[in-house]
Design goal:
Tyrosinase_Cu-bd; 3-stranded mixed sheet; mainly alpha; two-stranded antiparallel ribbon; 13 helices; membrane; tyrosinase activity; copper; disordered C terminus; 541 residues; 34% helix; EC 1.14.18.1
């Protein structure tokens, strides 16, 4: 991958869209709290010279948060991103990015005026070439250090208010691992073991579907930028009614290792992957952030989980019941009493009654527990590449609910949701900034669609793609076989015609028995009559 990496670095230097831009982690940027990098296209901050955007003050919603987090001024994610920056690029039109150098989701081209809708497909409906590309792209992202972005390894207070920047280099893939850790980590209140656990800026509350939607969109966009393949879309794993981990094969996400069932098969490229930010309890006990170091191999042992927490994988009936719930989120502080679509989709409501249970998890959460490994930790779950396939399908269920119920924007809570989840709250740790309610809209408005939500004819065509691809691979051999078969058929037909012609040329008194009998021995001395007869026989043949 080294030569491939150098190629992409040369021709695709801008790789990401989010946290933390290297140009914004200098002492000066942190002290002035301004993240308005120059757009290389015109050499102006935020591309202002080309009308792409401008450097503006960050506007924060003043709506009250819920009572679950009773502190203020202790966590860097509060009123994101004010602890780090109070001025960022605000992009115009269809432009987006930390420096307005990119396009909004669903738009392409130098001027971001080309509208396209991408299709996310069932992973089992990908062609062989598409499956191979998926694995290659994932591994390339895992092995490629992000040139444009770093991750924070200390709090702003530990950085002495910007005088001592604390950031680390990680791979393109691991930037996303860190992001999922950072949004869900415990709040550090100061000192070892002094943490607040009842807080999560991306889970347990209304922002769960929108936050993960933005997360997947950025990840998808990042892979396109890294590889130059603008046709790439995240596939999904439709786990309804699954009895086991169907994607856990060496051709896809990796089978079990025969030597250790908790590890990935050596035949899979994912067996060499190392995880980070997966030891939540250790960070809490030490009162520190994840330091982004290697924490050992990727682990997974699907099905050997605690059966008392997850009895089985979700069924089609579970999904259908979840979709039938009319309320997006009731706002109940107790997750077990929140009978809503979001709460049931996330896994805290019973997918048969909608009522919460303190002992069992369903839907989204059940898959994480079932995987019984790196994916089973909320903070470290994105280490497993199955995370992307799983959350793409969760997002598709969210999309179905939006289309079926057509909720008004007012259904998304504007106030009193847990911290980070109000409609106008900026999602940590994204830069550029996104508000939760901006993604309470259909995926079509964001430039993508799911193959199983197409009409019947289109779905049939999609399901046939792998078989047509296999046919495409063998068609030269099929043509050769047909030609050979045709030649043999013609030869047989000619032989039969000649045989019939020979039979007609024989004297009538000769029978079929004589026709197939061996020829009589010829005399040593030929007379004229005999020679003529022999000549006629050869001519007939």
């Amino acid at each position: 991958f080294s030569s491939l990496f150098l190629f992409f670095i040369k021709f695709f230097p801008r790789l990401c869209l989010f946290q933390f831009p290297r140009l914004c982690v200098t002492q000066q940027a942190l002290r002035t709290k301004e993240c308005c990098p120059v757009w290389e296209g015109d050499g102006s901050a935020c591309g202002a010279g080309s009308g792409r955007g401008s450097c503006e003050d960050v506007k924060i919603s003043e709506q009250p948060d819920g009572p679950q987090y009773p502190f203020s001024g202790l966590d860097d994610r509060e009123k994101w991103p004010l602890v780090f920056y109070n001025r960022t690029c605000q992009c115009a039109g269809n432009f987006m990015g930390f420096n307005c150098g990119d396009c909004k989701f669903g738009y392409f081209g130098d001027n971001c005026n080309e509208r396209r809708v991408s299709l996310r497909r069932n992973i089992f409906h990908l062609t062989r070439a598409e499956r191979n590309r998926l694995i290659s792209y994932l591994n390339l992202a895992k092995q490629t250090i992000s040139r444009e972005y770093v991750v924070a390894t200390g709090t702003y207070r530990e950085m002495e208010n910007g005088s001592n920047p604390m950031f680390a280099d990680v791979s393109v893939y691991d930037v996303f691992v860190w992001m999922h850790y950072y949004v869900s980590r415990n709040a550090l209140l100061g000192g070892p073991g002094n943490v607040w656990r009842n807080v999560d800026f991306g889970h347990w509350a209304p922002a769960f579907p929108p936050w993960h939607r933005v997360y997947l969109l950025h990840w998808e966009h990042e892979i396109r930028k890294l590889t130059g393949d603008m046709t790439f879309s995240i596939p999904y794993w439709d786990w309804r009614d699954a009895q086991d981990c169907e994607v856990c094969t060496d051709e896809l996400m990796g089978a079990r290792s025969p030597q250790n069932p908790n590890l990935i098969s050596p035949s899979s490229v994912f067996s060499s992957w190392k995880v980070l930010c997966s030891q939540a309890e250790e960070y809490s006990n030490r009162g520190v952030l994840c330091d982004a170091r290697n924490e050992g191999p990727l682990r997974r042992n699907p099905g050997n989980h605690n059966q008392n927490i997850v009895e089985r994988l979700p069924t089609s009936a579970d999904v259908e019941f979840t979709l039938s719930l009319p309320n997006y989120d009731t706002g109940a502080m107790d997750r077990t009493a929140n009978m809503s679509f979001r709460n049931t989709l996330e896994g805290f409501g019973d997918p048969q009654t909608g009522l919460g249970s303190s002992s069992r998890l369903g839907m989204h959460a059940s898959l994480h527990v079932f995987m019984n490994g790196s994916m089973s930790s909320v903070q470290g779950s994105a280490n497993d590449p199955i995370f992307m396939l799983h959350h793409a399908f969760v997002d598709s269920i969210y999309e179905q609910w939006l289309r079926r119920h057509k909720p008004s924007p007012s259904q998304y809570p504007e106030s009193n949701a847990p911290i980070g989840h109000n409609g106008d709250y900026h999602m940590p740790p994204f830069i550029p900034l996104h508000r939760n309610k901006e993604y309470f809209i259909s995926s079509k408005d964001l430039g993508y669609e799911y193959s199983y939500l197409l009409d019947a004819n289109q779905r049939l065509a999609e399901s046939m793609r792998p078989y047509l691809d296999e046919l495409h691979d063998v068609w030269p051999w099929l043509i050769l076989a047909v030609l050979c078969g045709g030649i043999v058929t013609v030869a047989i037909a000619i032989a039969i015609l000649l045989a019939k012609h020979r039979f007609k040329a024989l004297p009538r008194r000769k029978s079929w028995k004589n026709f197939f009998a061996l020829p009589e021995k010829q005399p040593l001395i030929w007379n004229n009559e005999t020679e003529a007869s022999h000549h006629n026989y050869q001519t007939t043949m």
